[in-house]
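tool_call: predict_structure(chain=1)
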Amino acid sequence: MKRVGEVLSAIFDEGLMNRARGYSALYSCWEDLAEKNGIAYAAGHSRIKSLDKGLVWIEVDHPGWKQILQTKESKLLSDFRRRFPEMDISGISIVLCRPGELFNETGPESAEEPLPAGKTALPGADAEAVKRADASGYGAIRDGALKDALARLEKSVADKEKTQGSAGK
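tool_result:
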């Protein structure tokens, strides 16, 4: 069976994969940048929401965290520019999310109530597929939605290979 990474490499060209790696690095560097700027504790109450037209959108769960991040905005912007010069980052926008929304998309570990056994953060994701994805090296992925999507993709590819394999016999 092919790994998800092999399938994705076959589907996307190298340039697209390099851009995807850059975006992945952007989203995963938040804790490091917050710690570097003396606000490590703020990383647990904020996240990079998106990059749009040169603006890094950072979402926070309380107005106090917004104020704290604003005090470090110019340093954070310098760090983003230094780490990701190819992304032409021109600014940072810090926005307040609705109560309880900040980490609901990232999986059961951050939801208000834990999900029942065998359930995953996204509908259609198979708990066994998530376990297989963890065994395949995806356990370090903290974004539950991404992990679920990769698990569904891996399961779909495996099912398709089984179908093609049995049809060829």
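agent: Helices lie at 4-11, 14-28, 30-36, 63-71, 73-83, 127-138, 144-167. Proceeding to next step.
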